[in-house]
Amino acid sequence: MRLLGATIALAFGALAVAPPAAPAATPIPQDPAGLAAPAPFVGSVAVPRRVSAPPVPGHPFMAPNGRSNIHDDAWMTDTYTWSGPLGRGIGVRSASFNFPGFELCGGTVAFDRRGRLETICIASDNRVTLRLLDPDSLDRLASYALPPRRLRPGANPFQDFSGGGYFYLDRRDRAVVPTNDLHLYVLAQRPGGGFARVEDYDLSSTVSADDRIGSALPDRRGRIWFVSRFGGVVGVVDRRSGRVRAMQLGEAIGNSFAVDPRSGVYVATDAAMYRFGARRDGVPRVVWRKRYRNIGIAKPGQVDAGTGTTPTLMGRRYVAIADNADPMNVVVYRRAKRVRGSRLVCEQAVFKRGASATENSLIGTRRSLIVENNFGYQGAASTTGGLTTAPGIERVDVERDGRGCHAVWRSGETAPSVVPKLSLAAGLVYTYTKPPGLPDRWYLTTLSFRTGRTVYNRLVGTGNYFNNNYAGLAVSCRGEAYLGVLGGTVKLADSRRPTPPTRIRLKVSPNRATVGRATAFSFRATTRDACGRRPVVRGALIRLAGERVRTNGRGRARMVVRLRRAGRFTARARKRGLLRGRASVSARPA
Fold it and tell me: Is residue 59 part of a domain?
């Protein structure tokens, strides 16, 4: 095992690529036959209806939830706390990077703290590139060439996600990328532009040369876990020492995995669902293992003869996958280390016998799961010439008492291969659909989380270049949707986006006083938008115990108050257009 520190990595100047000013993004070409496509928008503007869900804890070694990886957070919930496009004059922008060849840019889209896109681009000639894209224009801001993709003989190029398909952004906006030469790169943005490789972990001592690294994620102690695609290696990298410890299951792992706040690591192989932990010496150990139903064949639409899902954590109790039965089941387990009674909570059949498969993660909240049918998708030919895949998107809920589950609704929309997402703020499921018939047209589609009703379909493009081929939808905190497609990257955004009212966050110091004694209180009024920014509130009226004052241009105010009795007092702040804020002050006897 070999670790290259920052000082060594920066010596390889040729590897830190800062390209000359890139030309403006070129739109992805439409299918000429698609010029007579139906209306670009069908449906109605969505009315947001918030969905209640337990907060997902932020991960100390990953970028904030919603911008760190393909499934949005370490629990792999595929949910956002902010809204996506609501249908108010949605505009479409696209960028092509390799015409006339394919180059899918955006299988995974992460967002840095400035809102820019970091993504891996995989070209039809097997080039693999990390790119930084402008969130408005989709222009290339920086690029870094990664080791090229190595396909096994006879492998389907449309169904190989290794070597960068899964990566994550850490808390310092560094991309942590498993590569095709069995390394793990940590790539940082350079102040002057471009990327630099600041860490390099060689995993070839634990993973055979004909295997691939599928995914990597950190646990709560900062160790990086990884899984291999074919040999089923589960490994742990100690970032301080560079030491790698691993065990081999001998079961294929086709997807990523999930990590909980206690460093439980949840992996689904083509045979079983696992929870792992690490021993004191860092060696992975199996905490529990549970087999699931499996007919033993890879259905059309799946990569392996097993589950096609990354495990999804639901609140603090459950973990869920889809199995490989016929028809397929959504399967929920109790995820604790030890349980009384059965670990299995429920199996709920979804879709039709002989036409059920998924190769995408489930969307998960406290008790609800959304599953998408990918049966029939095996690459671009599956959706060309008017063809499409088996329809179906379903919602399954766990019973309140945890003793089973039931189907809630089923949509007839057809989503060949996208990783769908749920906006908790809007109550909308975002997916990417292709109906049958010519021209071959692709839509951003939204469904009501509560009813499954289609709210709107927005035409994105026509022809093969707009096929997303397993890429995941990504929604920025500004409410814009992004997706990698075979032709490059697409962006969809409302042209008219109302700003939802935000609540004033009021802080007071001190928050304790003595009865009858004049006390000088200092106040600060701010808000917090979906992107985590904390703008100050100017001119807010603050009241406390009959006194009042307004905040200045820095959102601050000061007043002297004499509290006349013991107990708790509430300071209230208000300003037109914002939800009122409050803060508490306690008074104690002299």
Answer: no
